[in-house]
Amino acid sequence: MDSSLSPSSFLKGSFVPTASGLGYREKERLIRSILHFLSIKTLVDRRGTLGFLSSSLASLVTNPLFEFKSEERVQRAEVFPLKMMWFMRFSGLLFAIMVMILFSPHFQSFPPAEAIRSSHHDGNHRVPILIPAGDSPRLFSFRKASAFNNAEECGFRDRNFSGKSSVCDPFLVHVAITLDVHYLRGSMAAVHSILQHSQCPEDIFFHFLVSETQLEILVRSTFPRLKFKVYYFNPEIVRNLISTSVREALEHPLNYARNYLADLLEPCVRRVIYLDSDLIVVDDIYKLWGTRLGSRTIGAPEYCHANFTRYFTDKFWSEKRYYGTFDGRKPCYFNTGVIVIDLVKWRRFGFTKRIERWMEVQKHSRIYELGSLPPYLLVFAGHVAPIEHRWNQHGLGGDNVKGSCRDLHSGPVSLLHWSGSGKPWARLDIKAPCPIDAVWSPYDLYRPLQ
Predict the structure, then answer these.
(1) How far is it, in rounded angstroms, from Cα 277 to Cα 287?
(2) Beta strand pairing status for 138-142 and 385-386?
(3) How far apart are CA 285 and CA 280, in angstroms?
(4) Strand order across the 173-179 sheet
(5) What SS3 class is residue 207?
(6) Rounded Cα–Cα distance for residues 18 and 20 (Å)
(7) Residue 291, phi-psi category: left (phi > 0), alpha (psi -120 to 50), beta (remainder)
(8) Tell me: the pLDDT tens digits for 343-386?
(9) How would you classify the pairing of strands 173-179 and 204-210?
(10) N or C: which end of the chain has fewer CB within 10 A?
(11) Alpha helices of 159-266 — where are they, by DSSP H?
C-alpha cells in the first residue's frame, strides 16, 4: 500500500473535505486508509494506532489550516459547526472500528499455521505476560538486556537490504531456539549469554520456534535490537507420533520442532545452529558456526565411550530389522541439544521423513525410552561431523529422575548444558542450587512481578 494512504498521512492534512460532503477521490482514500488500519495484524499495534488516530483527529479539528471549500463563500461563523459535524462523524467511525477489534476473534489471533514475523515494540518497558505455572497462572517479566554492538574487528557489512539485515543476509550467523512457557527463562538466559560473548552480536539472527504467539512481545521488550523472527510450530504435526517417555517433559511437542527446521526456515537459510533452552554459551558462537561438516548433514560433539546400547530397548537389540540399521556404521552417542545443521543437505535427502518413520515404528514396537533423542541416533549416529566436547558440557541437570548435582567434565568449556531433570532456575528459586548453577545465574534476566 502507498505510504501516502497511511493513517498518519491521512490525518496530517492530505485530506480536505468539501462543504457538500466527500468527493469520490476522498471517499476512496478514506476507505483505503481504514483498510490499512484493519490490516495491522497484532492487537497491540491496532490499539496503539487507534489511539494515534483519535489524537490526530482531535488536533485536525482545531487546526487553523483545516478548511471547508464550496462554490459560495462560507461565513466565518459557520466554520466551527461544520468542523464539529465532521468530528462527530469520524468519532463514530473510529468507535465502530474499536468495537470490531475488541470483539472480533479474527482480528485478535494469528492464522495457526503461518510463521509470525517479528513486530517492533518499545523496548524501554518490561512487558508482563501471563504464564501457566501448574494450576496457578502468574505474571512475570524480564528486565531489558544491555545493548550489544559489533567490535571494530567485525568490519563493515555491505548489505543491499535498505540498511537492514534480512534473514537472507549471507553474513549472518543463524541460531534456532524454542520458546516454551515453562523453559522461557532458560531461553532468555541462553540468548543473553550468546550476545554477551559474541564479538559480532549484531550479525546473529535468532529463529524462535513457538507454540504460544504472545511470547514475541516479551522477547522484543527484553532485547530491543535483537535480529529475530518467530515461527509458529503446530503441535498437531507430531502429537500422534510422540510416545510416552521416562520424563513427561520429554513428550512436549515443541521438543520435536527441530526436526522441521528445514521446512520452517526460509530456503535461503543454508545452515543453522540448534540450541536447547537449558544452556549458556561462554565463548564466541561464531567459532561453532564455522564448524566444517564436510559431507555430513549435522555436526555435534560425540561421546563414543558412552554405552550406546542403553538408549534402546531389548526388543530393538533382539531383532535384526531394527539393529541392522547400524550395519556399516560406527555409531556413537551425541546429545541433540547442540547441533550444527546443513539445511541444504537435510532438505535434499529428506531427513525429516526418515525421523518420522522411526517415530512411527516406536509407536507400535517400543524400541526406545528417551523422547526425541533416539530417532536422531537411528538416522545419524556414525554419520556425524565431530565437534569439540567443549561445545556441549552436558548433563549438568543430573539424571532424568532426581536431577542430582554434577560437576563439569575435564577440559575447556565453551557451552554449559543443564540436560537432565534439574534446571538451574528451578533450583535457584527453591534456594537449593547446585554449585554449577552459580555460573548460569548472571545471565538470568527474569524479574518476578510482586
Answers:
(1) 20
(2) unpaired
(3) 11
(4) 227-232, 204-210, 173-179, 271-275, 338-342, 298-300, 385-386
(5) strand
(6) 5
(7) beta
(8) 999 999 999 999 999 999 998 899 998 778 999 999 999 999 99
(9) parallel
(10) C
(11) 184-197, 215-222, 236-239, 261-264
- CA count, 13 A, side-chain hemisphere, 316: 19
- Alpha carbon distance 409, 393 (integer Å): 7
Residue 88 carries which side chain, given as an amino acid letter? M
Backbone angles phi, psi at 107, to 5 degrees: -80, -15
How far is Cα 50 from Cα 130, in angstroms, rounded to an integer?
A: 24
Name residue 131's beta-bridge partners.
138
Neighbours of 99 (CB within 10 A): 10
* DSSP run (H or E) holding 232: strand 227-232
Grid cell digits, residue 225? 535490537
Q: What phi and psi values does residue 77 have, to the nearest 5 degrees?
A: -70, -20
pTM: 0.70
Query: DSSP letters of 54-82?
Result: HHHHHHHHH-TT---B-SSPPPHHHHHHH
CB 306 within 8 A of CB 380: no
**Burial (CB count within 10 angstroms: exposed 0-12, middle 13-18, buried 19+), residue 94:** middle
Q: To which residue does cell 554459551 refer? A: 281
Convert the pLDDT of each residue in 348-357 to its tens digit.
999 999 999 9
Helices 76-103 and 43-62 cross at an angle (nearest 10°) of 170
Which parts of 372-435 fold into alpha helices (H)?
Answer: 373-380, 424-429
> 310: number of CA atoms within 13 Å, CB side?
4
Q: How far apart are CA 237 and CA 260, in angstroms?
A: 10
DSSP bridge pairs for 130? 139
State the pLDDT at residue 450.
58
What would you report as the CA-atom Rg of the chain, rounded to the nearest whole angstrom?
27
**Phi, psi at 280, each rounded to 5°:** -135, 150
